[in-house]
User: Fold this.
Amino acid sequence: MKKYVILMLLILPALSLAPAAQAEIYVDGFLQTLQGARLEKDNPTATEFTASETRLQVRAEHFGDAGEFFTRLDFYYDGADTSSYAWELREGYLKFRLGQNFDFKFGRQIITWGTGDLVFINDVFAKDYRSFFVGRDDQYLKAPQNAMRADYYSPVGSWSLVWTPRFEANRLPTGRKLSYFNGQQIVGEGFPFDPPLPDAEFRNGELALRYSRTVGSFNTALYFYRGFYKNPRGVEMIPVGSEFMPQPIYPRLHVYGASVRGPMFGGIVWLEGGYFDSRWDQDGDDPLMPNSEMSGLLGFERQIATNLTANIQWQAEKMLDYDIYKMQNEMAGMYVRDEIRHLVTSRVTKLAMDELLTLSAFVFYSPTDEDVYARFSTDYKYSDELILSVGGNLFDGKYSATQFGQFQLNDNLYMKVTYGF
Amino acid sequence: MRITAIFSTVFLIGLMVFSDALMAQDTKDTKDAQKIMKKSHLAYYYAADDGVAEVTMTITDKRGKERVKEFVMLRLDEEEGGPQKYYTYFRKPSDISRLTFMVYKTPDGNDQRWIYVPSIDLIKPISADDKNSSFVGSHFSYEDVSGRHWSEDTHTLLYDSTLNGSKVWVIESIPKEKYKGFARKLSYIDQENYLPLIEKYFDKKDKLVRQFKAEQIEEIDGVVTMTVRSMENIKKGGKTIIQFSDISYNVGLDESLFTERYLKNPPRKYIK
Assistant:
């Protein structure tokens, strides 16, 4: 009898708490299956699938008076990779406010800033091109960073500071599902791509700053970044036996930039610029390190008809100390890019059937690199829960060494079914 | 047979237009109509100085399939009949949950809109000069939700009538400039609270294409509020019902809530 009383005493408070706890933690997410196949037969990749995965994303959030937490947890089985179960904490952060003007966000988080549409200058946060090129949802283009973010708001603008103690690199094709250019040729299986990250030292953390202010209906911003190239743009010669082998590495980088965006000509106009300061090749004379660059972006978007929106962007990237680069690459018999690399992009989005059907196309075209990347997708919301999607990624290029030309064997089509809950 | 049908339709429409015009001649009171529409606009779109409400939107397509959207809406009037700020936080469905949306509405029509997509931490200004485009896939347009300024149409009081026991004014509105949304609108305005009980939208062939209805009106915090409204697409079929609940007025929403900071960090005081 006494046992029961004790048990009851233990259970009752638990029962009374349970509904409250249930009500306060909000959970939702989706289950998704994505299947994708290559169109090129002679791709050197290990698999013909560009995607064959099932993914469960669970989102949970809780908020109290002082702060809140949010987690986005993915469990997936990737049959096109190594046929195994895996999970990833896409986001897991806590957010709180100190005083009236400070907001803090600590933990694993997705961070975006800048004005470009899928073209990034001052957004030096990790991207996941392995996901981007195979048809995963847009949210997967951004890779999470373990970071501490502080925002300070004042009447004369807002300051943001993001400190990522451990450098987070872009996720690039590894040769398993997608082939890539390794400096000599397009490679796939047998060429594992695993450049070493900068040492886990305090000074190798990434610092990103932004000051932004709204002037009239325009949003203006200044940016600074101190860290490393997010792609392994540098090469280190490492001794292997009696020879030296090239090893891709992430060279040190500073970025200084500015942007402005606002309504104009019946649409939205954005202008962004940045100076990429290659810290390990200040004079541009180190053939193993990237030269500094100036980058500018101009974009315009407007609704051109009911439910039809289009934008166009033009980016120009000027390499500094180009003559030295050109001479070095010509001597080495390597691809020589133009001094100014131009990139034109366009996105067209059409909504149909009471916005249940979304047709979207995005094209990147570089007249100087002579390469192109086109992505298109069709999403149909069959019900509030069920979304059916098909799409494709097409690459072409004259040279194997260019940004999109290197992926020319990776053309793929995919289908995706998502059930949201 | 067909010719007869066409002829009689044309004749009927002509008669309708003529009779309406005749009525207009009778009352001749466009000035009063102007005043009524202004008061109606203020009663409907500018209730109190600010407001917070939970919204459930049920969209039924022409095949009878239902879709439900749930969101929280915050509204701040900067000036009665003038600029307003709107903030929307989506709860459901799952693919847009936590997405936020902000509008700076100005009566001259140069609205500014932003969307924040939390899964990619992306703030995006939306270029949208087409106010007739659907509001989040419903049968309501952006303009139906935020209001078309009364000065954009010429209003004529056609006649007094009763609708479900309420005395109403029937007012005809014709856009001053050619307008895609409608060629003619008939509004049945409640004479007591100035809320539009029915709105009929006609196209340029004077065919009824859409019909708005106040389904339920309640008094909340002393403000007569339309808690349930519907919009039916008569021409293509389909209907949307918007239901407001947990409404509170004059909660003292601060202007700072309608900024990038809160677009990214929903104000938990109002959005739980």
Remarks:
- Chain A has one domain: 30-378+386-420.
- Residues 12-22 of chain A have pLDDT under 50 and may be disordered.
- The two ends of chain A are 44 Å apart (CA to CA).
